[in-house]
Amino acid sequence: MHPTIATSVLAIIGYFTITNIIPQASPFFIHRGLFGKDMSKRGKPIIPESIGIIPAITYLFIMFLSIPFFFIKSSTGGKFNNLISLNNSTDTWLSSLPSYLSSMLSLESMILLGLIDDLFDIRWRHKFFLPAIASIPLIIIYYLEFNKTSILIPNFISNYLQLNSNSIDLGIFYYIYMFSISIFCPNSINILAGINGIEVGQTIIIAILLILNDLYYILGHHLLSGNSLLLQSAYEIHIFSLSLLIPFISISIALFNFNKYPSKVFVGDTWCYFSGMVFAVLGISGHYAKTLMLFFIPQIINFIYSSPQLFGLIPCPRHRLPKFNEIDGLMYNSFTEYFNNEIDDINNEKKKPILKSYLKPILSLLSKLKLIKLEYNEKGDIIKSSNLTLINLVIIWFGPHNEGELCSLIMKLQFFVGFTMLVLRHSIAPIIFGFDNSWSMLNRFYI
Ligand code: UD1
Ligand code: MG
């Protein structure tokens, strides 16, 4: 049986399993103290937290049950070997069992660390690096099995540098790059959060875009009847990717049904870390991290935009989610506050954050560009600035929204940007790079 068919069947079973388990398990999560307050509802009701552990574990089970379909073919009685097999005469669908198992090990470790974070609320600066630890098995196996450390560079750069080839060997820096991907993906999903549905919604959009990218290669392979070795390895990578994504999207939708507005469950950092790690695993083992980053553009923007708060230039409250207005039920900008010394001294309070003087003109400029919202006191001093999150930025641009509509607006924007990137990836990128492993270019090279 083709592995994508096997994983699709398991994905459907997984979907119904999760849909059944979540309502039954939710009271037990609350009973064990795993709950959070839904800050954007009247009365701030209590909702079970960390429910993402249920789809995450289901996903692992699906992937374990899929192993025989990837690595054993009935025609040969099933031995694990290193053949790249694309037709029925050979033994396996995927060439590397160690690589598959190390992906699963990294995902498992990430789920464990995410759960520990949910249980003990680890400080942001500590938990930031947890994904790097979880990715060690994956990266070590990548080193032992492939050790491919070169990346394509655009034609004009290789011409300018007078290089013989259009790729450059990054050596050790490639491994640093892979660790960065594995740190970035989970964390960037975790900080694009705070409104019902967005944590899962964004992962569904990324998965859809990756599936479209996989289908592009796979259909290309079938159209060209796999007549080049290069195309075959690209085909194998994308069969692997698709087989991981089909169950992923299925469990994500099952979770989304409970997490979307109005949320019945919260997914927890377990989900954010796990889902980010699924993407990191695909990008790293599939050697397509650059393409992956094209689908992470909203998360990259959110990360860069957040960096003054993340790195302490501007105070970063524990929660930066938008502010719920109980009167009209809409989400408005949330702010971080500044105080001046006088107020602190008079009230004899603990010193409160003061806006650094060199930041004042920068914030004023950003406010003129509609990139931030500021509030002033009667003396004209800045006393508040909107929290630097993409969600707040969308509210600045598109106005206050109902929470559910805000989530779907962000998902639509995310899909629009990602789809545009997908089209550019397969049209302009091959021209810039002078080469592409997708079928449209191979068409020109081999036919
Ligand atoms: C990240 C963000 C934080 C944001 C939080 C919301 C950074 C650096 N951190 O922190 O600003 O406020 O996610 O998830 O950007 N919650 C809701 N409604 C939702 C989702 C979450 O009210 O739709 C609240 C609940 O109280 C829930 C809590 O957020 O219990 C979960 O926060 P947590 O995931 O622990 O926050 P962080 O990931 O640390
Ligand atoms: Mg979180």
TrEMBL record:
The keyword Electron transport does not apply. Its main location: endoplasmic reticulum. It is a multi-pass membrane protein. It is found in: Endoplasmic reticulum membrane. Its EC number is 2.7.8.15. Keywords: Endoplasmic reticulum, Glycosyltransferase, Magnesium, Membrane, Metal-binding, Transferase, Transmembrane, Transmembrane helix. InterPro entries: Glycosyl_transferase_4, GPT. It catalyses: a di-trans,poly-cis-dolichyl phosphate + UDP-N-acetyl-alpha-D-glucosamine = an N-acetyl-alpha-D-glucosaminyl-diphospho-di-trans,poly-cis-dolichol + UMP. Its cofactor is Mg(2+). Pathway: Protein modification; protein glycosylation. The chain crosses the membrane at residues 6-30, 51-72, 92-116, 128-144, 172-193, 200-219, 239-258, 270-289, 295-314, 415-435. It holds the Pfam family Glycos_transf_4. GO terms for cellular component: endoplasmic reticulum membrane. Belongs to the glycosyltransferase 4 family. PANTHER family: UDP-N-ACETYLGLUCOSAMINE--DOLICHYL-PHOSPHATE N-ACETYLGLUCOSAMINEPHOSPHOTRANSFERASE. UDP-N-acetylglucosamine--dolichyl-phosphate N-acetylglucosaminephosphotransferase that operates in the biosynthetic pathway of dolichol-linked oligosaccharides, the glycan precursors employed in protein asparagine (N)-glycosylation. The assembly of dolichol-linked oligosaccharides begins on the cytosolic side of the endoplasmic reticulum membrane and finishes in its lumen. The sequential addition of sugars to dolichol pyrophosphate produces dolichol-linked oligosaccharides containing fourteen sugars, including two GlcNAcs, nine mannoses and three glucoses. This is UDP-N-acetylglucosamine--dolichyl-phosphate N-acetylglucosaminephosphotransferase. The lineage of its organism: Eukaryota, Fungi, Dikarya, Ascomycota, Saccharomycotina.
